[in-house]
Records
---
Amino acid sequence: MAEISENKITLKAPDDFHIHLRQAPGLAEYARLTAEAGFARAMVMPNTLPPVTEPAGMAAYKEEIQNAAGPGFTPLMTFKLMPGMTAAQVRALADAGAVAGKYYPAGATTNSSDGLTHWELCADAMGEMERLGMVFSIHGEDPAGPALQREQLFLPRFREMAAAFPELKMVFEHISSAEGTEMVRELPDNVAATVTIHHLLLTQEDILGGALAPHLFCRPLPKSDRDRRAIQDFVLTGSPKVFFGSDSAPHLKEKKECASGAAGIFTSPVALPLLIDFFEEKGRLDLLEAFVSEKGAAFYGLEENTCTVSFVKESWTVPAEYAGVVPFMAEKKLNWRPACVGA
Ligand code: DOR
Ligand code: ZN
């Protein structure tokens, strides 16, 4: 049970159910910063080069992350669903400890050109995931659509999958539209969504409305104020169908400030202080612990973390860069900082 006072908040240690930790040489720094930010676990996306698709590669990737982050942090591993993936391949990955398989529409985002053009191409794998109770994690965008409509245009595909696999645990990742939010709310309880801190706080205006803000460019794009309000309202219902996944996605500064800028916002170091602000401003700090530390674990069928983490109300300035990456809220003052991790 969270302890909340005016200047200190102690929570069951949070989980991040959607993170990109990349590969060496950046990996060690990103993994360490995630643990230092107060996360006890994070579910690591498989869109590396080459992607995580088989048990040996997944185990090696896990070990690399574990070594960098230290013993207080547990990486939760995922694999990328590939065209033609078989039930036997899924079973082997489940036996090796994968908690989810990630579906990327081909070309939808970073390192997804080898993704799926039609969900039917991984139907065998989806059936096995349904049977095993494994989570099917989805980047829900149709890359053929206009940039701000891609999520909405993907919703019919999502509904087809949900109808074809009625028991499959499905997570609509980084939900970004009012329509997507409505769909997840209306579908049965085996369908949930993750919400990022940037989709809770930003709209398209923050990226495009003034000077172009490359460090806020991400996929799916933050949309209108109506969409942002729908996401906030969903979170503020306290529904078990919505929990935190940062989609923290570090790219080096030069990959963002250039003629062909990469999509992704590095939020790990600031996500929890900003979430505290968000719930505090809404007068709903009572919902914080469930959002970051309980509902995701429950959906994934994992035990909650037993350690705790405290945050103190103490102003700090976000660094301009972490290891060559410009973080979300760079050089801005935040109100809360992690204090100590206790047993
Ligand atoms: O903005 C994004 N960046 N969205 C994604 O879906 C992927 C991520 C990345 O890997 O850079
Ligand atoms: Zn992602």
---
Amino acid sequence: MTNDGALLYPQVTATRRMQSLDGIWRFRFDPESEGERDGWPETGLPDAAQVPVPASFNDLFTDKASREYTGDFWYETEFVAPGEWRDKDLFLRFDAATHRADVFVNGIPVGSHEGGFTPFAVRVNDAVRWNEANRLVVRLNNELSHASLPAGTTGTLPDGTKVSGPYFDFFNYAGLQRPVRLIAVPAEAVTGYTTTYELHKDGSAIVHYTVETRGLRPEDTLRVRLIDEVGSVVADAQGAEGELAVAYARLWDVRDAHLYRIEFTILDGTGNAAAADGGVIDEYHDEIGIRTVEVRDREILLNGRPVYLRGFGRHEDSAINGRGENLAVVTRDFELMKWCGANSFRTSHYPYSEEELRLADREGFLVIDEVAAVGFMKSLMNFLDAAKDDDEHRGRGFFDDPDVMTRTLHVHKAALDELFTRDRNHPSVIMWSLMNEPDSASEAAVPYFRAIFDHARTLDPQHRPLTYTNLMMAAAGRDRCHGFADVICLNRYYGWYVQGGYQLSGAKAAFMAEMDRWMQIEPDKPFVFTEYGADTAAGVHKLPSVQWSEEYQCEYLKMQHEVFDAYPAVVGEQMWNLCDFQTGEGIMRVDGNRKGAFTRDRQPKAAAFLLRERWNDATRHQA
Ligand code: GCB
């Protein structure tokens, strides 16, 4: 896939153009995979439905076969390629096509992409007719396998219909779930950049930068400027690599975000500077935050000071849109998190939209950025039947599949490359999560972890901490992979999946016994709870409590918090989940997972008030 300047977050500048292709597109399922043979890329989709982009397709229709559809499906629209953009490189940028896509323009294949949660761009200059309508047709596919992120299986019903078997606990929403844009970038262009930060005791800072370009002629100048929030240029430099010295740096901090605009300009060095465009060949800008992140002893340090993470695991999930980008819901979620006193979240269980991270940057939220490596555990029923260590299951785990060390590893590394490239400059990203709840108790997981962590360690110039989230079945003493992580992230459900209800005191004892063990096994690392929660049906009240009532959710949370507070090595708590969310149907879920502090339509359960009280208690934690 190309990275020719179109993968940077899209913007219009003096030299760049873009046009949204969002709106109503034509849509059609293709269960027999006949579309290409039948010429749909050239002639368009016969008998097409009308659907919105961006959105998941699943909850738009009224029949079950459409909601559950698994296989190939197609989208089609038309766009005019403006003739004034002829001298630029023209790209189609898909912010997310879930889970894989092949793109055709006027019948010509222009590119493909694997992975449903990171953007890709395809160059279309050779396929378009300028100033005319062009047919854009995209084939998507949402099948799951051991080499898809997220992982699962694709089965067939007796009548031959394909059916998804997710190894994960969220609905397998699919489609063009984020914006699609036509983008024009100069042939000589900025294609990416990185920064690292050095803070000094006197309040000054150095921003070390590198800029990636293509087609840069030796006679041209690459100018880099740093501009503060009132519009003053505070530092400038030239060249593809350098330093920006800031005399009085306003640091980006947790819930106290200060952003600088970093501006890259390629200036014509051939004496054209008097031209109408001022000799500007390309211009791109972004917002960065000056801050450092470090794990030392048993703490996560932001700008050298310990932070305590308060917040949530979340999902991009809402009624009708499914996983389709819904900026009103995103905004509401930030308001809910702020109301609770949260300062952090994890992008469980896939990279969230770029708009979402930009909001986090501006709001000063700390983000654990997770790749879609979820379901690395052969379990179709959440983790109830997973990680069994009996004879029947031994040697049949996810990592024992020989394809995993080859195909899955390859797809996973590529997904990490894309995630790190997309998100490396967000100040909000303070840690990378490389997997959610893999079968880390199995011996076969160890070489896989080594390969993935070694790879990820090469990707981030800021060397932010790397982690994965550990599941309960790979508890202290059973997990074989925690040595790879910089921070130990635990997903724990004592008092829900085990020893729930009246047995809560037993759950607490078992929880503390496990924590005591962890303190010995990992004496030097900080711990974050990346999940803890209890399913709760909003509006169900019981005195005394029973499981699923709002009262029980509160009792459960209180118990968890007592355990966290007993271990100084615990430096964060992210409750599962901010909101109720949709999952596949089954006996474990009542129209979805109900562990939200808020309902799916974003109204509070009693637990939300409990969190608000705890997280707004200024005496409790530093950050
Ligand atoms: C987990 C998973 C998450 C589930 C959650 C639950 O451990 O990471 O995806 O939704 O448990 O509610 O069971």
